[in-house]
Amino acid sequence: MAPTDETGQSAPHTSPYGTTPPAPPADAATGAAARMPRWLPRAMVLALSLIAVFQLGSWAFHQLIGLLINIVIAFFLALAIEPAVSWMAAHGMRRGLATFLVFFGLLIVTAGFVVLLGSMLAGQIIKMIEGFPDYLDSVINWINTTFHTHLRRVDVQEGLLHSDWLRRYAQNSAAGVLDVSTQVLGGLFRLLTVALFSFYFAADGPRLRRTICSVLPPARQAEVLRAWEIAVDKTGGYLYSRGLMALISGVAHYILLEALGIPYAPVLGLWVGVVSQFVPTIGTYLAGALPMLIAFTVNPWYAVWVLGFVVIYQQFENYVLQPKLTQKTVDIHPALAFGSVVAGTALLGAVGALIAIPAVATLQAFLGAYVKRYAVTDDPRVHGHRRRGEGSSLFTRAWQLARRSPDTRSGEGSVQEADRESE
């Protein structure tokens, strides 16, 4: 037991080397052990700061998602017109002027397509409105003849004009005019944003590449420039090949519609060509619905002719025309193209469906240089064949066993047992 002084505390311990100070009280030791580590407040502040930055970044990303999508669209559009702009710039034209001429040409083509399609739809709507009384009379006569009723067109018109359904529809339509106007203005602003960014991307393409490469080491600069070149080739090649196939498809369908005497044959041919090529996978059948409908109003058999031609032309395009035009531009498997379109639609909607194929083709071409390939052995299984005597089906084995006699099977069993005993 340690010695104590008059106050009851431990006396200093005397050793040959000097006096040892007394041990600290129990309360002081407990307080030192319970004291907060010095790194804990800073760690808590750092964690709270990271959470705040993450929340702020997530909020900003959701607020700017529309702008980011517009920038992605503008970037791919700039990649698509990059070959034409570069070709004009290589022949002595200023890059800004070349970009303006390309955009002006695209504007003229788009405006002409919209005007032609709008005039066709307006003419069809006017024709339907003018012929609506005759259609209504034919329907009323069929109802009176079939069900022995005595309906009149005047009674039907008065019932429609004084119906609650028509009144509610008119009120909802009037209330929705403001929403439609807002959507139209928003679409025009979005289109202007995409056009502005794509113009800057295309006109200042070399400056943009220099800016990106200036912050990268030389090895990375070569990779970025190579990826950029592949993206330009694949995106431009995709759009140009699609434009050529749209022209061929439009001319072919125009010849058919003109031969059948279908009205608005040039506009319908242009519609089929554009929609069938720039709406992936189902574009041909979706585009063929409008000429089929108009052909049905002329003669129901004409609609059947149009349907048959659409199906036959789709097969010709898939197996003859498309492989020759796209084998050097966007050479990807049809299943991969379909999957990329589905994924792009799920991520970005219609925009994703349009840019999915060139994006996947660019990624495939870029990664193809880094995937090491080996020579394939000459094996029949590579070509989908099996070696002789291998891989017989279960049904074949059961049939061979059933054809054997019971004595043969029992003899084979005894021979196998004898072999096992000898082993």
UniProtKB/TrEMBL annotation:
Residues 1-29, 400-423 are annotated as: Disordered. The keyword Ribosomal protein does not apply. GO terms for biological process: transmembrane transport. Its main location: membrane. It comes from the Bacteria. InterPro entries: AI-2E-like. The chain crosses the membrane at residues 43-61, 67-85, 97-126, 184-203, 244-262, 293-316, 336-363. It is a multi-pass membrane protein. Belongs to the autoinducer-2 exporter (AI-2E) (TC 2.A.86) family. This is AI-2E family transporter. It holds the Pfam family AI-2E_transport. It is found in: Cell membrane. Keywords: Cell membrane, Membrane, Transmembrane, Transmembrane helix, Transport. Residues 1-17 have a biased composition (Polar residues). GO terms for cellular component: plasma membrane. Signal peptide: none annotated.
